[in-house]
Amino acid sequence: MKDNPIVFGFDDATFQIDANSNETYLIGVICQGVRIVRIEKEIITIDGMDATEKLIDIILRNSDHVQYILTHTITFGGFNIINMNKIFEKTDKPIIAITEKEVNIDSVKKALIKKFPYNYKQKFDMIFQAGNLYETKIDTAAGESKIFYHVIGIDVEEVEKLFPKICIDSKLPEAVRIAHLIGRAFRNY
After folding, report:
1. Where does residue 165 rank: exposed (0-12), middle (13-18), buried (19+ CB within 10 A)?
2. Which pTM value belongs to this model?
3. In this structure, which long-range contacts are made by residues 34-39, counting pairs with CB atoms below 8 Å and at least 24 apart in sequence?
4. Does residue 181 have a pLDDT over 50?
5. What are the domain boundaries of the chain?
6. 6-184: CATH class
């Protein structure tokens, strides 16, 4: 593994479910190590089914040197859930979906059934396709912090070696943290 691996981090922009628009931005940030190289954005549908394809499109447009794909969870724009396996198959890039807290799968299932009573199963299945949720600790400015992640196309041991190279003072890798901050700037989209 290189000292400054090139990673592509993704998060969604802030959105309001009761707003007039049913769209939000998917933000992508390429970092070499912790240095920003490029920023991308695409429009996705809130609670839709297009985040996987949009993510693949952005990655393929920028794939020459990118080594790893990182996402802030597996859901974007509400319940627009990505298919991690499909992203890996289409891009040939390992993908790591990071979350700051352990997922309560029963609560997620209840929310999906309530919001999508006739077609929740497909979205729920995509969550299970992401595989195991692993836990690790990241050194931050405030001490050690827990982080959880799903992974496709890379060994857990390699992920553990990768995180210290792409995190500064936050438990989120820098590319994901920056995508998150940029996404917050779109509150009134």
Report:
1. middle
2. 0.91
3. 34/166, 34/167, 34/168, 34/174, 35/4, 36/178, 37/6, 38/62, 39/182
4. yes
5. 6-184
6. alpha beta
In one-letter notation, the amino acid at residue 130 is A
Tokens encoding 111 = 């929310």
- Burial label for 187, CB within 10 Å (0-12, 13-18, 19+), is exposed
| The one-letter amino acid at 152 | I
State pLDDT tens for residues 22-37. 899 999 999 998 899 9
30 DSSP β-pair partners: 8, 38
**SS3 assignment for the chain:** CCCCCEEEEEEECCCCCCCCCCEEEEEEEEEECCEEEEEEEEEEECCCCCHHHHHHHHHHHCCCCCCEEEEECCEECCCEECCHHHHHHHHCCCEEEEECCCCCHHHHHHHHHHHCCCCHHHHHHHHHHCCCCEEEEEEECCEEEEEEEEEECCCHHHHHHHHHHHCCCCCCCHHHHHHHHHHHCCCCC
Residue that has been written with the tokens 């210290």 in this structure: 164
- Provide the residue count of the chain: 189
